[in-house]
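Late entry, written up from scratch paper. The run itself happened at the end of the previous shift, but nothing got recorded in the book at the time, so transcribing now.
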Amino acid sequence: MAPPHPAFAAFRKMSYVWVDGQAFEPIGDSLDHWLTYLGGNGARLAWLDVAGGEEVCRVIRSDGDETWRIVWNGGIFMLHGSEETGPPRRRETDVPAMAVHLHDAVHAELEADATDVRRSALERALEILASAGDGEEVSDVAWPYFVLPDGSTTASRRLIAAASAAWPETSAAADPDAKPPRGEGCVDAALDAIAAAVNSAATPEPVE
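Output as recorded:
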């Protein structure tokens, strides 16, 4: 199997900044620093929200909520956090429903005459979804199988692996334009599936 996706190494080295009005509080340049910061602030739950045309991380604290958004800053991605003042957001965790949704979306893209390279990736996604286990035996990348925490269900691991296989190939280098646009092929279904798999592993315990 291939090594971990380079994008995950980039995510771990992203700069994390808390934004309070016009004030910026640097947190650090690693995922570990960010998680320590969240834990120190009393974070109880972190989950992905891909609705509404943007991908953000919502964090629920004992004293309020916050939202973290990816920002491109001239050569480096940053994660900016700020207080959330909007209405409550829906946290999608229905893994079986998202598996069906992804399956149907992948089939639709295949029927729309996908190119040979793309067709191979989509067929691999279907093979993973059809697996009795987590699909690792038919996957060509390793990283989907360790991005979820210990104790995550086989169905969640299978779903995130299938969604990763169905995701259109992009450059591993930092590039604000590398993200496939919404509405193309099964991009939206893959995003929904990834969010459901990640969110299904969340518990109301403090972030360590």
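Confidence is low (pLDDT under 50) at residues 1-11, 203-208.
(Scratch paper discarded after transcription.)
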